[in-house]
Amino acid sequence: MKQIREGLWQTRVERPAPGLKTHAYFWQREAGNILFYNTGHSDEIASMKELGGVAYQLLSHRDELGESLKTIQTLYGSQLGGHKAELNDYRHYVKPNILFEESGRLFDDLEVIYTPGHSPGSVCFYLTLSDSSRCLFSGDTLYLNDKKGLSPGMLPGSERKALKQSIKRLRKYHPDLVISSAFAGESGWKEVVDWQQELEDALAQLT
Predict the structure, then answer these.
(1) Distances in Å between the alpha carbon of 93 and those of 14, 62, 68, 72, 80?
(2) How far is CA 44 from each of CA 18, 23, 25, 188, 207, rounded to the nearest angstrom?
(3) Residue among 158, 180, 131 nearest 10 (CA)
């Protein structure tokens, strides 16, 4: 794994489809380490033991499901979090211990933001790292495109109106760092200069 911030690591890249890349992200914290998204790299999963293991694995939406969920839960006894609207999608993998519904605090230091549109149960995660950086894990609600900008995760089957409303809901947050689930460029994360403009540019792509 590669450390990208104090207490935050990124797993090795994976390419689940042509033009599509993903990482998982490991957040080391006193109240229990959290793995955001998912990785299929068994060596990366094993290396998390040196950092204290995985207490929670939180998925932003159903596209992150995979057999490695079983591996992670078996190895670390971790709790899995996913949205109630996509519970049926988990039936071939691992049933979530933690079910998200509406937006709200999951832990004292982490907020779940319900952002349907890309998929019915898409969520984002908002937190502050130990270096005081405010971080938004945007799932595929917003993804890093090949021009280093943010694009809405509008695919066949996505709901345009819901996605627009979800992106507008993110206006009240002020992240310094955005980390998407899938990405098309060189990096799955970026530092934010003008968050409101980033959102307006993303919304313009949905008109």
Answers:
(1) 19, 11, 9, 12, 11
(2) 22, 11, 11, 17, 40
(3) 180
Residue of 30, 29, 41, 32 lying closest to 1 (CA atoms): 41
Decide: 80 and 73 in contact? Cβ < 8 Å. yes
How far is Cα 184 from Cα 85, in angstroms, rounded to an integer? 27
Q: How many CB atoms lie within 10 A of CB 207?
A: 6
For Cα atoms 28, 31, 32, give the angle at the middle one, nearest 5 degrees: 55
CATH homologous superfamily of 2-204:
Ribonuclease Z/Hydroxyacylglutathione hydrolase-like (3.60.15.10)
Using a cut of 0.90, tell me whether the model's pTM lies above it: yes
For 41, phi and psi rounded to 5 degrees?
-80, 110
Domain residue spans of the chain: 2-204
Q: Which two tokens stand for residue 113?
A: 């933001």
pLDDT value for 161: 96
Give the H/E segment covering residue 44: helix 42-47
| Complete DSSP assignment for 58-116 | E-SSGGG--THHHHHHHHH--EEEEEGGGGGGGTTS---SEEE-SSEEEETTEEEEE-T
- Tens digits of per-residue pLDDT, 139-151? 999 999 999 999 9
